[in-house]
Please model this.
Amino acid sequence: MADFVERYNVHPQHFWLHGPRTGQPVEFDAGTGMWNVYGHPEAHEVFSDPATFSSDTMRLVPKSLMPGGGDFSMAGFITQIDPPEHGKLRKLVSSAFTRKVVADLEPRIAALTHELLDAAAGRGRFELVTDLAYPLPVIVIAELLGVPSSDRALFKRWADALFERDTQISLAEPAENQDVDMQATLRPWKEMSEYLAGHAGERRSRPRADLLTKLVEAEVDGERLPDDQVVNFAIVLLLAGHITTTMLLGNTVLCLDAFPEQQDKVRADRSSVPAVIEESLRYLTPFAAVGRSTTREVELGGVTIPADQMLLTWVAAANRDPRQFPDPDVFDPGRDPNPHLSFGRGIHFCLGAPLARLEGRVALNILLDRFRHLGTDPDDPVVFMPTPTMTGVRHLTLI
Model:
C-alpha cells in the first residue's frame, strides 16, 4: 500500500488506503459527535437493520448546518427514507433497472463509448474522466430520465459543487464555530431543482416514454407524488445515476495501472473483466462512507450506542476488514467470494448497481481493445477527489 499511496499522492483523509488501521470496529469520535463503524460484520448489520439504523440522518443535523437553514424539502429523497415509504417509492422506478431493461442498453453503451473515444482521439490527448468516465454514464442516465444529455456541463457543475468538497460537519461543535458555506450547497441545489421542475412540468402536459414521466404520473396510496417529491427523486436518479459509474471507471483503470500484472491477466482472459470491476469496487470504494442514525439503544461491535446518534459507516474500511478479506490491501480480482459492501446491502442496495456494472464492463472491454496498454501519464499526476467520504479520481490522463 505504501507504494500506491506514494505513487498517487493519496490524501491522509483516505485513511483506508494507508494500510491496516488499528482500533476497534466501532468507535465514538468526540470531535464530530458521531460514531464511526469500520468493521465488515458491523457494517453489514447496520445495512441489514433499517428499523434500528435509520436512513433519515438529517433529523439529527441542526437546521443552522443545513442548506437554507433547513428550508429546503427532503421529501422524495429516497436515500433518506425508511420503510414503508421507501419501498413504495423504490417500486416506482425499479422497473427501469430490471436485468432485461439494463441488458438491452448494452448496444447503446458500447456505441457511446466508441463515439466518446473517437472524439478524444481527434483531440490527441485522452483524459479519462473528462473524455469518458463522466460523459458516458451521464448520457445514459439523462436519456433514461428524459432530460437533454447535452446539458451535461450543467450536471457536472452541480455534482462538483455538491460532492467535491473537503469539509465535514460536526454535531459536537456549535454551528457558529464551523466554517461551513451552506450557500455553496444551496445554490446548485436550487438550480438543479428549478431545472428538473421545469422538465417535470412539461411532462404533465406532454408525457413521454421516460422515467420523469413515470414519476410525474406515479401514484402512491392513490395520490400523485407532490412536486417536491418528483424533483428530489429525479435529483437522486440524475446524480447517483452517474457519479458511481464515473468513479468506478476511473478507479478500475487506476488499479490496472497500479498493478500491471493484473492488466496482463485480464487482457489474456476477458471473462475476468467483471471480477476486476468487483475487486476495484472493494479496493477503491467509490462511496467510502454512508450515514445512518440510531432509533434505539443498540449494541454494535461490542459497544453500546444510545438512541438518536449519528453513525458514519465506513464502507471503504469495511471492505478491507481482515476478518472478512484475507490480505485486504492486495488487489486480487481472483477473490472468491468477494462480499464487498460498495453497493450497500438490504433495502437500500443500490438500485443502479446492474447499470453501473454493465457500463463498467462494456467500457473497460472497449478500452482494452483500443489501448495496447492502460497507463497513467507520469508527467500529468493523477488527482483524487477531495471529498473525505468518496474515493474517486477527478483527473487521470492515459498515455
The chain has a mean pLDDT of 90.
